[in-house]
UniProtKB/TrEMBL annotation:
It comes from the Eukaryota. Residues 142-379 form the Centromere/kinetochore protein zw10 middle domain. Residues 588-742 form the ZW10 C-terminal helical domain. Residues 436-566 form the Centromere/kinetochore protein zw10 C-terminal domain. The gene is Zw10. Keywords: Acetylation, Cell cycle, Cell division, Centromere, Chromosome, Coiled coil, Cytoplasm, Cytoskeleton, Endoplasmic reticulum, ER-Golgi transport, Kinetochore, Membrane, Mitosis, Phosphoprotein, Protein transport, Transport. This is Centromere/kinetochore protein zw10 homolog. It comes from Phaetusa simplex (large-billed tern). It is a peripheral membrane protein.
Length: 743
């Protein structure tokens, strides 16, 4: 029973909540269907109304935008119109800056109008034209004003830029504004500011700057005699020139700087000290002075001109003057400072000052250039002006300090080639100075000067800064490289044509090679420390110079040999000398050869060193004798009369040949060399033996042969002797017996 009650109780409690849940469900169902009805209603009616409203809204919005655009365009057109009106008013009142600003306003209104897409107005083209016309009109007015402010009086353009025509240049600057303009502020400022607003200032200033450079600044740098001269009148300031006798070819930088500074001060005072507002790209306006703008335009050209025509000339040419150059650097600094104060220059050191401060390097460059130019002039001068050198001649050699004595060097003509009778070489070997001496001969005086130049330059190097020392050392090496390249080419034709020049050139090369052996050595204390690996030497150039001299001389020898053989070729092979015509031809050929050798002996006399002379003449005489021997030995038949005539031709050679040996101008001293001819002429004895054969009988020839041990055997082979015997003698038993003994 208990349980039953409990269940009933719970059930009774449950029923109402169940009931309320069912009610709830029913309510929800009702609501849901209401919503469905409403949704259907909205979809059918309200949505349509909404779409209509949005469309209307969009249309209105577009309408508004269109109206705003039209309004802004009308506003811009109105702005343009007002600007042009205001411009006209300002222009009439000569308020140039205002007028220019109004034009620029009109310009920016027009730009806005042109940038509207989809809105092309025919009127815009007309407005553009109007603006252009007004701008040109304004520029014309400004140009007129500007021309009154700065008036150029120039020489007629067809005159050259000579000193005379430059004297006619004047610049007039107007100083006092006339009454009606006083209201507009200083006329210079307003005219120039208006140009600036219109963006035309640059062009105007550029033209002014070019005239200033051409007619005032550059002439002041180029002509030392020009002085700027100023004159102030009531309303105008005049800048012109007067001419004074200059004391030098080039003015000192100090004088030039002074003149140019004066010109800038005048310009600054009367024209350029005008602050301007420059329209800048990013709409921020920047304030500059006119001087800055002009400076930017002309400084580079002006400073180049100052460097090239003024500073370059002031660089000293010897190291002793380098000290005084401080003055130039100082005055360059002051010049730049003055220009900076006037705003012509901005920023730090310019090229001009850099150049002046860099004097050591320019000194070295200038020195090296001078050295090379001097050397080149010497190399291209005549070879045939000669000087005689002897074993104890010397270059103007400096007496050099030892390693410890510092750099105080003095030039002295030393009496010996090197400063001691004994040259003290690195390895302490004592050598007599004659080990290094040159034989007596003639060299071009230009080459002696060239060598002096080399010594002087090395001497200068030892007293210079390290950098300069290195440059000078290498420029001395360059002198010799240059000689090696220039001389053989430049004098090529003469060296081939003129035997005397070839001989002098040979001596020149040997002389240079000789000095190059010791050149670096004498300066070693100073140069070796600076040049790496003790490279302060010229020894490597020696073989090249010896070869150069030899090759030129040998080429000349080949020419002479060719001529000798050419002449002997007209001697009809020395055959049939019993024919008068043949004999004359041979005799003439021999005479010509002797004449050629005599002439050579004369032009080489006193030029070539004696030993070279004797070898050269010996070689050429030998060529002639050798050719004659070959021709005669080849003959197949020599009659008794032929033999006599051949003998007399040969005797001419033997008697007159030695007389071509005249190495020295003093006659009596040449005897010795003429007696030594057999030493220099290889075929001399052969020739003498041939003459003996031409006069000998069979027995005498066999005796001369002496079983291959006699003098004849020393000069001719058995075959040659047999051939001569067959040519000279009839075919008899005696001849056969003689031939049998020659073997």
């Amino acid at each position: 029973g208990e349980v039953c009650n409990m269940i009933n109780k719970k059930y009774n409690e449950f029923l109402p909540s169940m009931q309320s849940a069912e009610d709830l469900v029913a309510k929800v169902d009702g609501l849901s269907s209401n919503i469905d009805l409403l949704k259907a209603g909205i979809e059918n009616e309200v949505q349509q109304d909404l779409n209509v409203a949005v469309a209307e809204f969009t249309e209105l919005k577009q309408q508004l935008e269109q109206d705003t655009l039209v309004l802004s365009i009308l506003k811009k057109l109105q702005e343009f119109d007002t600007a042009i009106k205001d411009y006209n008013t300002a222009l009439l009142e000569k308020k140039y800056v205002t007028a220019a600003q109004q034009l620029e306003k009109a310009r920016s209104s027009l730009k806005m109008l042109e940038s509207r897409k989809g809105f092309e107005l025919k009127i815009l083209k007309a407005l553009g034209t109007e603006l252009t016309v007004q701008t040109q009109n304004m520029l014309y007015h400004l140009g007129e004003e500007w021309q009154k402010l700065a008036v150029w009086k120039l020489p007629p353009s067809k005159e050259s830029s000579s000193l005379e025509s430059v004297m006619h240049s004047e610049l007039h600057l107007r100083t006092v504004p006339s009454k009606e303009e006083e209201i507009a502020g200083p006329p210079v400022a307003s005219v120039l500011q208006a140009f600036a607003v219109l963006g035309e200032l640059h062009t105007k200033l550029k033209i002014f700057g070019q005239l200033l450079l051409k007619y005032i600044l550059k002439p002041l740098i180029s002509y030392p005699s020009l002085q700027p001269f100023t004159e102030e009148q009531s309303d105008v300031f005049i800048l012109r020139f007067k001419s004074e006798e200059p004391n030098l070819d080039h003015s000192s930088p100090m004088e030039v700087f002074y003149k140019i500074q004066l010109v800038f001060e005048v310009l600054h005072k009367y024209l350029l000290n005008v602050p301007l507002v420059q329209p800048a790209e990013d709409k921020k306006e920047c304030r500059v002075t006119l001087a800055e703008l002009l400076g930017d335009m002309i400084w580079e050209e002006l400073s180049d001109c100052l460097i090239q025509n003024c500073l370059v000339n002031s660089i000293p040419t010897n190291s002793s003057k380098l000290e005084q150059y401080i003055e130039v650097i100082k005055s360059t600094e002051e010049f730049e400072k003055a220009l900076k104060n006037m705003h012509f220059l901005k920023g730090d050191t310019t090229d001009l000052l850099e150049y002046a401060r860099n004097v050591n390097s320019h000194f070295a460059n200038k020195k090296c250039q001078d050295v090379i130019v001097a050397a080149r002039n010497l190399m291209t001068s005549e070879i045939h002006n000669t000087v005689k050198i002897t074993p104890d001649s010397c270059v103007g050699l400096p007496r050099l300090p030892g390693p410890a004595t510092g750099d105080h060097l003095k030039m002295e003509k030393t009496s010996k080639l090197l400063h001691n009778d004994m040259v003290n070489l690195e390895n302490e070997t004592k050598l007599s100075q004659y080990m290094f001496s040159l034989p007596t001969c003639r060299i071009s005086s230009s080459v002696e000067k060239l060598m002096e130049l080399a010594y002087q330059t090395l001497l200068e190097a030892t007293a210079s800064t390290d950098q300069c020392c290195i440059q000078l050392f290498y420029s001395v090496r360059n002198i010799f490289q240059l000689f090696y390249d220039v001389v053989p080419t430049y004098h090529k034709e003469n060296l081939q044509k003129l035997p005397q020049l070839a001989a002098i050139h040979h001596n020149n090369c040997m002389y240079i090679a000789h000095h190059l052996l010791t050149l670096g050595h004498q300066f070693r204390y100073r140069l070796t420390n600076i040049l790496c690996d003790g490279a302060a030497t010229f020894v490597d150039l020696v073989p090249g110079f010896r070869r150069l001299g030899m090759e030129c001389f040998l080429a000349q020898m080949r020419v002479q040999k060719g001529e000798i053989l050419e002449r002997l070729s007209s001697a009809r092979n020395f055959s049939n000398m019993d024919d008068e015509e043949n004999y004359c031809a041979a005799n003439k050929a021999i005479r010509q050869v002797l004449h050629q050798l005599k002439r050579l002996g004369k032009v080489w006399q006193d030029v070539l060193p004696v030993n070279v002379y004797c070898k050269a003449m010996g070689t050429l005489l030998n060529t002639a004798l050798s050719e004659i021997v070959t021709r005669i030995a080849a003959l197949e038949d020599i009659s008794a009369e032929d033999a006599d005539r051949l003998y007399s031709l040969c005797r001419t050679m033997v008697e007159e040949g030695p007389q071509v040996f005249i190495p020295l101008p003093e006659e009596d001293k040449n005897k010795k060399y003429q007696e030594e001819v057999p030493v220099y002429v290889q075929k001399w004895m052969t020739f003498k033996e041939l003459m003996i054969i031409l006069q000998a009988n069979l027995q005498e020839i066999v005796d001369q042969w002496a079983d291959g041990k006699g003098p004849l055997a020393a000069e001719f082979s058995a075959a040659e002797v047999k051939s001569l015997i067959r040519a000279l003698f009839q075919n008899t038993e005696r001849r056969a017996a003689a031939l049998a003994k020659i073997k």
